C-alpha cells in the first residue's frame, strides 16, 4: 500500500540507475540524474522509452536520439538543456517525445490506481491485527500504541482511495462529455439555434429601447453626468480578496475546482511560432487524441470590437477587468447609441458562462490554434480569452507565450498551476534576456510630469466625490511622482522640456539607496502597487484625459472649461516639447507610436516601475539617466538576478526542458539561471545533436588574414583603420565573384556598417561589389524589414533566372543583434554564404553591463579560469555570433559557407563556444588563398547537377554564377 501511495505522490518518478549516455554521433552529454522518488513509481526499473516513437514519417536518427533523451529526462524529473539545429525537425521531436512520455505516464497511473483500489477492496474484508481478541497493546518505534499507528495509516490510505475515486468519476464524466460533443453534431446545431434566438431577442429589445428613447433630448445633461460616473474610483477596501483578477463568477468555480491533470506547458517567443507548433501537433500522430489549449493575451484573443479598438494591451486589460468587475457587482449599464463614451456599468456580452463552457469543450475536443480559437469565439458568442482558461485543468498540452509563463502575476491570473507539471521552453537561447526584460521597467521625465499633472487635475475635479481612502492613495502616488522627478533634477510644476539638467550622466543605485535618497522609504510600495491594480486608476485616468484632454468634447460649463484648460495646455506644450526633443536626439529612428497613448496613459508604465521597486535590494539596480532636459531624462529598473523569477518554475515543476536550435554557450543557463535558482547540478542534463545535412554541404572557415596578408583583428582600436575596411571590401569582392545567389554579411553594429559602407563608396570598392551583387542594407525601422527582404529575394530569383548579365545575386549588409540576425530564414539561394565581420563584443563601458559584471563577480563562485564577468562578455558575443551564422542552413538539402573574419575565433575559449555541428566541420585558414580555393570547390560541388545537363549548357551556367570567365 505504501509503495502504491508513493506512485501517486507529487514527485516525479525517477530512474534507478544512471541515465543512458547519448552516443558520440549525437553529440549528447548527460549528467547523472539526482533521484527524486522511488523506482516503483515509474513502474519499476530504469526509464524505458517507446521504440519506435510514434512519428508521421520515418524520423532521422538524430530525431530518435533526441526523443529518447527527452523521454528519459521527463521520466527522471530533470532539467534538460536540449540543442537541435534548425532544419532537424526539433518541433516534431519535442511533440512526439513529450507526448509519448505523457501517454505512458497516464497509462501507468491508471494501472496503479486500479491496483490500489483493488487492494483496498481486499483489505476492507480483513480486520486489523489489533482488533483481534487477546492481542495486548504494544508500542511501535514512535512510542504510540500499534492500534493508533494502524488507525492513522488506515485513515491516510482511505483518504487517498477516496481521492482516487473522485478523480476517476471526474475523468469519466469529462471523457463522456467530450465524446458526446465529438460525435453528436445535433448538440452543436442546438447551441447555434439557441444563440440565434438570443441574438434576435436582444435585437428586438434594442429596437424597443430606441423607440422609448426618442424625444429624450431634454435629459442630455443628466445623461452626461451619468456617463461621468465611470471615471470616478469606486470605494476601495485594501484587504478584500476579489475574484476580479481571475475574471470568474463566484458560482462558476465548479469546473475550476477540478484538479489539473498532468500536462505539458509548451511556450515560445512569438505568436507565429506558437501557431506553427500547433500546426505540427495537428499533423502528428497525437493530433486527434490530444487535449490542447492555446493561451494568449487579450490583445490576441478578445472578440469584443469595442474593447479591441482601444489598441494598447494595458488599456484592453483594464477595460476587460472593469467589465468583469461590473458583472460581479451586478450593476449593469447600457451605452447610448452613437455616443463615444461608454456608460459606467457596461458588461461584456461575450462573457457568458454557459457559452464559455461550450467553447471550452469545443477546444478540448479538437486541436485549435489562436486564429481558430478566435473564429470559434465569434461563432459561439463566447470569450476565447476566458473560455481557453476554463480548458486548462483538463488540457494535456497548453501552448502559451514566454511572458505568460515567466511572469508570476500573469501566470497566476491565467490559472496556470505548475506543481508537478512539465514545462518546455522552446527558442530559449534568449531566455535570460527575456526574463530580465519582462521584469525591468523604464519611465521618462516627460511621462512622470504628465502623469502628475493628469492625476492632480483628476483629484481636483472629483475631490468631493472620492472616498477618503482613494484620496489618500492618490496623494501618495502624487508624492511618489514628485520625488521621482526631483531625483532627475526637476520640478513637476514646470514643463519638463524646458527644465535643463545641471548634472548630466548615468548613475546606478541600489533599490534601498534610491528609496532613501528620494525620501519615499516610508511609503509601502506593495500597498500602492496593489491599489493601482485593484482600483484600475490608470484606466480611470485614461478615460478622464480621453474625455477632457481632447478639445472636441461635449459642451461644458465655464467652470468646467476653466478646470480642464490647464490640462489641455499642459498636454499641448508637452507634446510640442517631446517633438522638439525627438528632433535633437541622435538615437536610431523608431516607429512612431500612438500620440494619444503617449499623452494619455503614462501612469500605466509608471505602475510597472513601482512594481519593479518591490524586488529585493540585491536583485536589481535603479538607473538614473540624466540627459539635457528633465523630459529627456529617465529612471530605469535593471534586474540583475533573473533566477529569482525562475526558481519557482524549476522548483514546482516535475521537469523543465530548455530547448533551442542554438543553445551554445550553455554556461549562462547553468550558472546565471539554474545554479542561482538553487537547482541541484546533478538534476541538470544537456543534450546536443548534429545536423541532418551531409558534411560537404557546409563549409565554416575561420579566416585569419585577407588577400593582402593584412591580419584580421577587428578590435575597437583597429577596426576603424582604412586598411582594415579596405581588406574587408577586397574579401567580399573575391567572394561575390564565386559565390552564387545571396551573400549575407554581418557587422558588429549599425554605426560600423554605415562607416564601412561610406568608406567603400569613397574608395570605389562599392562599385566593384555592385557589379556582381546588388547591395542591400538592413533598415533600422522594423516596418521596412519585410520590404527590404522581399526586394533582396526578388533580385536573387531574377538573377538565377536571367539568361544574360554579370549580376549573380545580391549582397545584404546586416547587423548582429539587429532585425535580421534572428528569426529570418535565409534558406537556399537567399544565403549561400554568411560572413561575420569581427567579433560583436558588447560595449563594456555601458553602466548597465558594468553593474552586471560586478554583480556576477560578487555572486558567482570563483572557479579556476577567467572571472565570471569575462565569461559573460565572451558568452554574449558568441551567442550573437551563433544566432547570426545559424541563418544559413535551414533544411536537409540546403548548403552554404560560413566565414568568420577574425583570427581571435581560433582561441580555444572562443572556438569551443561555436555550435558543435559547426565546430566539427570548421577549417582554420591563416591565408586568404587557401580559403578562396575551398570556397570555389564548394560552389562547384554544390552545382554538380549541372553536369547532368547537355554539354552545351555547362559554360553558360558556370559563367552565370561566376565560376568561369566570361567570353
TrEMBL record:
Q: Which InterPro entries match?
A: ATP-dep_Helicase_C, DinG/Rad3-like, Helic_SF1/SF2_ATP-bd_DinG/Rad3, Helicase-like_DEXD_c2, P-loop_NTPase, RAD3-like_helicase_DEAD, Rad3/Chl1-like
List the catalysed reactions: ATP + H2O = ADP + phosphate + H(+)
Picking any one GO biological process from the record gives: establishment of sister chromatid cohesion
Membrane-spanning intervals of the chain: none
Report the residue ranges that make up the Helicase ATP-binding domain in this protein.
Answer: 49-478
Q: Which UniProt keywords apply?
A: 4Fe-4S, Activator, ATP-binding, Cytoplasm, Cytoskeleton, Developmental protein, DNA damage, DNA repair, DNA replication, DNA-binding, Helicase, Hydrolase, Iron, Iron-sulfur, Isomerase, Metal-binding, Nucleotide-binding, Nucleus, RNA-binding, Transcription, Transcription regulation
Q: Where in the cell is it found?
A: Cytoplasm, Cytoskeleton, Microtubule organizing center, Centrosome; Cytoplasm, Cytoskeleton, Spindle pole; Midbody; Nucleus, Nucleolus
Q: Which PROSITE patterns match?
A: HELICASE_ATP_BIND_2
- State any single GO MF term: ATP binding
Q: What is its EC number?
A: 5.6.2.3
The cofactor(s) it depends on are:
[4Fe-4S] cluster
Q: Which GO cellular component term is one of those annotated?
A: centrosome
The record ties this protein, via SMART domains, to: DEXDc2, HELICc2
**Which stretches of sequence are listed as region Disordered?**
1-56, 119-145
Family to which the UniProt record says this protein belongs: Belongs to the DEAD box helicase family. DEAH subfamily. DDX11/CHL1 sub-subfamily.
Q: What is this protein called?
A: ATP-dependent DNA helicase DDX11
Amino acid at each position: 500500500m505504501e509503495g502504491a501511495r508513493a506512485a501517486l505522490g507529487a514527485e516525479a518518478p525517477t530512474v534507478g540507475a544512471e541515465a543512458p549516455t547519448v552516443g558520440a554521433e549525437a553529440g549528447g552529454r548527460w549528467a547523472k540524474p539526482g533521484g527524486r522518488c522511488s523506482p516503483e513509481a515509474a513502474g519499476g526499473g530504469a526509464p524505458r522509452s517507446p521504440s519506435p516513437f510514434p512519428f508521421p514519417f520515418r524520423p532521422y536518427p538524430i530525431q530518435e536520439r533526441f526523443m529518447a533523451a527527452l523521454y528519459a529526462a521527463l521520466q527522471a524529473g530533470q532539467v534538460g538543456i536540449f540543442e537541435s539545429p534548425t532544419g532537424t525537425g526539433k518541433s516534431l521531436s519535442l511533440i512526439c517525445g513529450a507526448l509519448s512520455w505523457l501517454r505512458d505516464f497516464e497509462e501507468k497511473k491508471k494501472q496503479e490506481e486500479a491496483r490500489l483500489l483493488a487492494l483496498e477492496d481486499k483489505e476492507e474484508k480483513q480486520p486489523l491485527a489489533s482488533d483481534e481478541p487477546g492481542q495486548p497493546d504494544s508500542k511501535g518505534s514512535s512510542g504510540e500504541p500499534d492500534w493508533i499507528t494502524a488507525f492513522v495509516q488506515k485513515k491516510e490510505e482511505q483518504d487517498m482511495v477516496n481521492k482516487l475515486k473522485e478523480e476517476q468519476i471526474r475523468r469519466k464524466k469529462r471523457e463522456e462529455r467530450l465524446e458526446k460533443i465529438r460525435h453528436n453534431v445535433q448538440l452543436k446545431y442546438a447551441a447555434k439555434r439557441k444563440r440565434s434566438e438570443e441574438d434576435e431577442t436582444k435585437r428586438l429589445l434594442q429596437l424597443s429601447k430606441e423607440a422609448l428613447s426618442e424625444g429624450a433630448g431634454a435629459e442630455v445633461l443628466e445623461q452626461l453626468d451619468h456617463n461621468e460616473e465611470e471615471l470616478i474610483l469606486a470605494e476601495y477596501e485594501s484587504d478584500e480578496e476579489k475574484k476580479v483578477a481571475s475574471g470568474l463568477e463566484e458560482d462558476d468555480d465548479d469546473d475550476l475546482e477540478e484538479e489539473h491533470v498532468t500536462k505539458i506547458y509548451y511556450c515560445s517567443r512569438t505568436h507565429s511560432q506558437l501557431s506553427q507548433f500547433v500546426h505540427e501537433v495537428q499533423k502528428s500522430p497525437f493530433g486527434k487524441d490530444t487535449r490542447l489549449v492555446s493561451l494568449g493575451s487579450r490583445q490576441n484573443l478578445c472578440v469584443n470590437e469595442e474593447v479591441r479598438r482601444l489598441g494598447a494591451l494595458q488599456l484592453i486589460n483594464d477595460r476587460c477587468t472593469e467589465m468583469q468587475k461590473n458583472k460581479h457587482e451586478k450593476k449593469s449599464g447600457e451605452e447610448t447609441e452613437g455616443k463615444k463614451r461608454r456608460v459606467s456599468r457596461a458588461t461584456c456580452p461575450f462573457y457568458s458562462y454557459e457559452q464559455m463552457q461550450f467553447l471550452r469543450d469545443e477546444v478540448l475536443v479538437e486541436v485549435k490554434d489562436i486564429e481558430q480559437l478566435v473564429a470559434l469565439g465569434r461563432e459561439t458568442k463566447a470569450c476565447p480569452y476566458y473560455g481557453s482558461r476554463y480548458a486548462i485543468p483538463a488540457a494535456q498540452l497548453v501552448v502559451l507565450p514566454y511572458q505568460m509563463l515567466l511572469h508570476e502575476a500573469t501566470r497566476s491570473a491565467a490559472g496556470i498551476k505548475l506543481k508537478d507539471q512539465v514545462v518546455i521552453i522552446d527558442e530559449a537561447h534568449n531566455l535570460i534576456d527575456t526574463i530580465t526584460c519582462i521584469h525591468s521597467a523604464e519611465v521618462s521625465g516627460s511621462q512622470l510630469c504628465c502623469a502628475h499633472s493628469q492625476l492632480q487635475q483628476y483629484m481636483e475635479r472629483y475631490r468631493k466625490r472620492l472616498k477618503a481612502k482613494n484620496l489618500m492613495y492618490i496623494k501618495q502616488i502624487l508624492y511618489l511622482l514628485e520625488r521621482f522627478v526631483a531625483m532627475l533634477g526637476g520640478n513637476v510644476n514646470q514643463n519638463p522640456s524646458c527644465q535643463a539638467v545641471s548634472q548630466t550622466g548615468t548613475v546606478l543605485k541600489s533599490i534601498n539607496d534610491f528609496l532613501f535618497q528620494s525620501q519615499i522609504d516610508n511609503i509601502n510600495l506593495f500597498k500602492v502597487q496593489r491599489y493601482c491594480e485593484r482600483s484600475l486608476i490608470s484606466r480611470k485616468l485614461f478615460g478622464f484625459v480621453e474625455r477632457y484632454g481632447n478639445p472636441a468634447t461635449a459642451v461644458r460649463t465655464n467652470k468646467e472649461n476653466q478646470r480642464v484648460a490647464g490640462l489641455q495646455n499642459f498636454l499641448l506644450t508637452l507634446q510640442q516639447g517631446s517633438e522638439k526633443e525627438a528632433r535633437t536626439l541622435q538615437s536610431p529612428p523608431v516607429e512612431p507610436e500612438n500620440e494619444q497613448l503617449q499623452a494619455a496613459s503614462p501612469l500605466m508604465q509608471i505602475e510597472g516601475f513601482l512594481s519593479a521597486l518591490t524586488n529585493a535590494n540585491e536583485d536589481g539596480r535603479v538607473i538614473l539617466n540624466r540627459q539635457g532636459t528633465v523630459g529627456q531624462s529617465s529612471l530605469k529598473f535593471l534586474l540583475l538576478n533573473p533566477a529569482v523569477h525562475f526558481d519557482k518554475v524549476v522548483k514546482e515543476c516535475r521537469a523543465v526542458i530548455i530547448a533551442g536550435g542554438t543553445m551554445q554557450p550553455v554556461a549562462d543557463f547553468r550558472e546565471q539561471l539554474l545554479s542561482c535558482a538553487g537547482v541541484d547540478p546533478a538534476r541538470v542534463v544537456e543534450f546536443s545533436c548534429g545536423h541532418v545535412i551531409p558534411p560537404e554541404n557546409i563549409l565554416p572557415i575561420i579566416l585569419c588574414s585577407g588577400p593582402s596578408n593584412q591580419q584580421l583583428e577587428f578590435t575597437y582600436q583597429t577596426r576603424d583603420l582604412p586598411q582594415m575596411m579596405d581588406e574587408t571590401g577586397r574579401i567580399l569582392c573575391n567572394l561575390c565573384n564565386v559565390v552564387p545567389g545571396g551573400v549575407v554579411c554581418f557587422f558588429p553594429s549599425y554605426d560600423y556598417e554605415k562607416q564601412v559602407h561610406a568608406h567603400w563608396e569613397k574608395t570605389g570598392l562599392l562599385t566593384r561589389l555592385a557589379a556582381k551583387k546588388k547591395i542591400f542594407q538592413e533598415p533600422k525601422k522594423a516596418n521596412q524589414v519585410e520590404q527590404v527582404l522581399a526586394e533582396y529575394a526578388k533580385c536573387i530569383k531574377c538573377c538565377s533566372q536571367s539568361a544574360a548579365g554579370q549580376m549573380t545575386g545580391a549582397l545584404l549588409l546586416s547587423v548582429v543583434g539587429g532585425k535580421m540576425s534572428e528569426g529570418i530564414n535565409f534558406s537556399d539561394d537567399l544565403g549561400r554564404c554568411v560572413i561575420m565581420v569581427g567579433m560583436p563584443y558588447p560595449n563594456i563601458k555601458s553602466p548597465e553591463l558594468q553593474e552586471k559584471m560586478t554583480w556576477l563577480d560578487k555572486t558567482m563562485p570563483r572557479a579556476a579560469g577567467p572571472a565570471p564577468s569575462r565569461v559573460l562578455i565572451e558568452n554574449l558575443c558568441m551567442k550573437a555570433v551563433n544566432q547570426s551564422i545559424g541563418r544559413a542552413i535551414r533544411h536537409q538539402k540546403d548548403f552554404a559557407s560560413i566565414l568568420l573574419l577574425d583570427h581571435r575565433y581560433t582561441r580555444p575559449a572562443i572556438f569551443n563556444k561555436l555550435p558543435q555541428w559547426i565546430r566539427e566541420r570548421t577549417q582554420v585558414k591563416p591565408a586568404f588563398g587557401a580559403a578562396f580555393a575551398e570556397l570555389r570547390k564548394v560552389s562547384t560541388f554544390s552545382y554538380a547537377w549541372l553536369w547532368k545537363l547537355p554539354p552545351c549548357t555547362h559554360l553558360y551556367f558556370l559563367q552565370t554564377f561566376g565560376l568561369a570567365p566570361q567570353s
